Amino acid sequence: MLKNCKLSFEIWGLLLFLIVMIPNFIWFAIPAPNDILRAESITEMVDTAASVCQILMIVSICIFRNRESKKLCISPFVIMVTVCYLLYVASWIAYYNGMTNAVVIL
Predict the structure, then answer these.
(1) Which residues pair with 6 in a beta bridge?
(2) Number of C-beta neighbours around residue 53 at 10 A
(3) Considering the entire predicted model, what is its pTM?
């Protein structure tokens, strides 16, 4: 799997990460009115493991480059990723409008 990858800084990986994190940056700066995500966690070990995995994912997006990558074109995969991102942003909008059910949180 890694034989097709080379180590180099991937600016597009960093840009992709920053785009996905826009709602989170807003949340850090401006808390939601009914902000249940800032409550004390009862699963600290799971949260710590998740944070470590998130950091590893960000690093891997930014330093691994596929040698056989082609130019980005519209494909079913790209459409699916775009739809998922739009659902992610819609969930943040719903969260800021006071909706805190399981579907919005997950």
Answers:
(1) 65
(2) 10
(3) 0.72
